[in-house]
Design a protein that fits this description.
Blueprint (H helix, E strand, L loop, with lengths): L4 H10 L19 H21 L3 H14 L6 E4 L3 E6 L8 E6 L7 H15 L8 H16 L7 H18 L4 H23 L4 H21 L13 H14 L3 H9 L3 H31 L16 H18 L4 H23 L4 H23 L3 H8 L6 H12 L8 H28 L15 H4 L5 H8 L37
Antiparallel strand pairs: 1-2, 2-3
Helix pairs in contact: 2-3, 2-4, 2-5, 3-4, 4-5, 6-7, 6-9, 6-12, 7-8, 7-9, 8-9, 8-11, 9-16, 10-11, 10-17, 11-16, 12-13, 12-15, 13-14, 13-15, 14-15, 14-17, 16-17
Length: 522
């Protein structure tokens, strides 16, 4: 190489490349008519509202909205998402005013069956660029499909959910060292809790009081067991009231969006993460108030409350893993997941308990052991779910339910109201702080596992949570890998004037309407 070319080569190697963050870009006015643009924005908002209402994380909702907008050529649209609202604004060019639309997310209910259909719809719409001349037909067909999804009946009847939650509580009691009697009482108590909470929710009672009422029912059963101890025909240690309450607490904790709050915070959505975290705090406080109130009143009435330590769990590890799998399976059913996802969630739940048991046998503390087990859950969910064609949110959220610290919360609350202690409320506060550390470890661990497993799922098709290369933290080869992954599916056009509905051809309004209908057109 001639000497005069050396400086140029050095300059080329040192000089900066394209900007890593493209910000402040102008919108690109497309070729769509104003009415079609309005329909596309409405479709994107409805997809986002449905996903957020059915249990998706903020990052997944935002990416799905942008995916739909890009498919119809609306590049440069601004998307703003908070805990209760979604706003999309699009600048149509110099000769037209910007178009801004907003949707309010009024209710939330985990329904992973319908969520999976909405995610698949967003993916199919966004997997190919829609020509302007076909945009109106395509967007109308997508609206009709979304109408069918959000108005479809839920996967299971309400009594099936009650049975699943009862099974969950019984399996949790087995995990905590209880026997068949404890499992039976815990299952019956949880059935009463679920029906009572469901009955009160139909009367419009706020979620805080629903949590308090459910926890109070569990505590009342424990107090009844304390009162009946002298007349029980068997050893009271066979039926520890603490395990009954702990099983009910796990059921109440399972519905909280602790993982979603941690994931939103890590993914760059601080407002939504703060709102989710505050909601988790308030609902957990409802559990604390319900149990604490009942225990305090019982103690003031002279009920002899004695915290009996649960028996040592001497069951074989295989039995414990099976019980943990049943816990995850039951919560997946209670969240209306599809049968395939239910089976996968059961496997991941068993893995989580196996890892927790191994870490505990090595002398690792409860918080760290739970965090490690949750990390494995997140990693396995993100890696395996798209290969098994199930949403990873189902496997990750359901897989950590066996790890929830129900017994630690109850012990802390019991110590708070125990007047026999000479050191006041210190043991209770320490116990609750330990439960908080376990919860934070679970949330952080499962989120870390998802991010660690995200690069490994590139090249797979469907089923998983769609994330951008920036959020995943993968290399520049990701766009090409993502393109190879795409299946290039688009929704079939529907002839004008025909009634559309579900995939089997039945009308959209056929069948029983679910507990919550979201994303409907106004």
């Amino acid at each position: 190489m001639p000497l005069r070319w050396v400086p140029r080569s050095v300059v080329r190697r040192v000089a900066g490349g394209p900007p890593t963050l493209q910000t402040g870009l102008r919108s690109r006015p497309g070729e769509l008519e104003p009415a079609t643009i309005h329909a596309v924005l409405e479709l994107a908002l409805r997809v986002g509202e449905a996903m957020l209402s059915l249990g998706a994380a903020a990052v997944d909702v935002t990416l799905a909205i942008r995916r739909v907008l890009r498919a119809f050529g609306l590049r440069g649209a601004q998307v703003d998402l908070t805990f209760t609202s979604i706003t999309v604004s699009y600048d149509r060019g110099d000769d037209a005013y910007p178009l801004t639309m907003m949707r309010i997310v009024a209710e939330r209910i985990p329904d992973y069956g319908r969520l999976q259909d909405v995610v698949e719809l967003a993916r199919e719409v966004g997997d190919s660029t829609v020509p302007p001349e076909e945009a109106r037909l395509r967007v109308d067909a997508a609206h009709d499909r979304l109408d069918a999804i959000v108005s479809a009946p839920q996967t299971y009847r309400r009594w099936v959910v009650t049975a699943a939650l009862s099974t969950l509580a019984g399996a949790v009691a087995i995990l905590l060292g209880g026997g068949p009697a404890v499992a039976l009482v815990a299952a019956a108590t949880t059935a009463v809790i679920d029906r009572a909470v469901w009955f009160l929710s139909l009367r419009g009672l706020p979620p805080f009081f629903l949590q308090a009422a459910g926890a109070a029912v569990a505590a009342l059963v424990a107090v009844a067991l304390y009162i009946a101890r002298p007349v029980l025909p068997f050893d009271p240690a066979v039926l520890p009231p603490s395990l009954v309450v702990a099983s009910g607490i796990v059921v109440l904790l399972a519905g909280l969006s602790l993982v979603g709050a941690a994931e939103d915070a890590i993914s760059g959505f601080p407002i939504t993460a703060g709102a989710r975290a505050f909601e988790v705090f308030v609902l957990t406080l409802g559990i604390v108030v319900g149990i604490g109130f009942v225990l305090d009143v019982a103690q003031r009435l002279g009920v002899p409350l004695v915290l009996l330590d649960p028996p040592q769990n001497t069951s074989p590890l295989a039995v414990q893993v099976l019980a943990a799998g049943i816990v995850a399976l039951a919560w997946a059913v209670a969240s209306y997941a599809r049968p395939r996802a239910v089976v996968v969630a059961a496997g991941v739940g068993g893995i989580s308990w196996a890892v927790l048991s191994v870490m505990s046998s090595l002398g690792v503390g409860p918080a760290v052991a739970s965090a490690i087990a949750a990390t494995v859950v997140g990693f396995v969910s993100e890696w395996a779910s798209p290969r098994l064609k199930v949403p990873s949110i189902v496997t990750s959220v359901c897989g950590i339910v066996p790890l929830l610290p129900g017994l630690a919360i109850y012990r802390g609350l019991f110590d708070l109201v125990d007047r026999s202690s000479d050191i006041g409320v210190v043991p209770g506060l320490a116990g609750l702080f330990g439960a908080l550390m376990i919860g934070l470890g679970i949330a952080a661990g499962v989120t870390l596992g998802e991010f660690l497993g995200a690069p490994l799922r590139l090249g797979t098709r469907g089923g998983g949570r769609s994330r951008s290369a920036t959020v995943r933290g993968v290399t520049g080869r990701a766009p090409r890998q993502l393109l190879r992954r795409s299946s290039r599916l688009v929704p079939l056009p529907v002839a004008p004037g025909t009634a559309t509905g579900r995939r089997d051809g039945t009308p959209a309004d056929a069948g029983r309407t679910g507990d919550a209908v979201v994303g409907q057109r106004d």
